[in-house]
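ok so I'm stuck.
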Amino acid sequence: MQTTDNRPAGQQTRGRRGARRLLAQALYQYQIAGNSPAELRAQFSADSAFDAIDSEYFLLLLDEVLADTDSLDQQLTAAADRDAGLFDPLERGVLWIGLTELKSHDDVPTRVVINEAVELAKGFGAEGGHRFVNGVLDRLAVQLR
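replied:
not stuck anymore, here's the structure
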């Protein structure tokens, strides 16, 4: 049996890293298919990987990001010097996660936020997209922390 993160059951990414990984997929789906927050919660809560991740963190970040996408996009647009609506949807979702953690989760070190986002972009994003994610979050980290 395969999980959403394409690893055999029992070997999926765990904890907060797993929450971010699953959240990147949920935010991609939100942008592409237009699923509501309630639909995303139900679908991803039923995923076989959900029990292994930090599910509370997943749900918290999902709610925080989806409640603030317009503001997040404004900050991303300013930091990237191009409209966030033109970003690759996966990279935009990863940046939403990273920016939300930088703004609202001081318990997560800046280096961890950026490294986790870069790893997500490497794993799911377009070739070289991780460099873009790294640069944008570096700029925002200087402003926010």
